Amino acid sequence: MSQDIYDQNLLEEFEIYSNEIESVLRNASQTMSKHPAPSSLSAAELMMRYSIAQAADGLEELKRFYMNYDYNHLTMATNLFRESNDLSTQALNLSRGC
């Protein structure tokens, strides 16, 4: 998308890509619900769930950006992805502490 954010073909490719990522996030969340972590990993699991939710919200903000090119959505998406990354790092660190 950095090539030309107004290119319709790139937007369509991005939409396909973001839908695939959204599906992966949904599947990860469903798998976590079907197969709960052992109690010793409950804190890490909770952080990972928060991470997945933040990433999904970030994708939604990106979609909003490409609908109206309001850069506030792009900024929000960046912040949500950063938070998602931080939460997944925390989850990893918590899982190592067990």
Structure report:
The protein has 98 residues and is an all-alpha fold. It is 82% helix and 0% strand. It has three helices and no strands. Helix 1 packs antiparallel against helix 2 and helix 2 packs antiparallel against helix 3. It is elongated. The N and C termini lie far apart (41 Å).
Could you list some keywords that capture this structure?
mainly alpha
Poorly predicted tracts of residues: none
The portion of residues forming beta strands comes to: under 5%
- The counted number of beta strands is 0
Q: Which oligomerization state do the chains in this entry correspond to?
A: single chain
Order of helices and strands: HHH
Radius of gyration: 16 Å
Q: Structural class per helix/strand content?
A: mainly alpha
Largest sheet, if any? none
The N- and C-terminal alpha carbons lie at a distance of: 41 Å
Quick overview:
The chain has about 100 residues and is mainly alpha-helical. It contains 3 helices and no strands.
Blueprint (SSEs and pairs):
Elements: H1 8-34, H2 42-68, H3 71-96
Helix pairs in contact: 1-2, 2-3
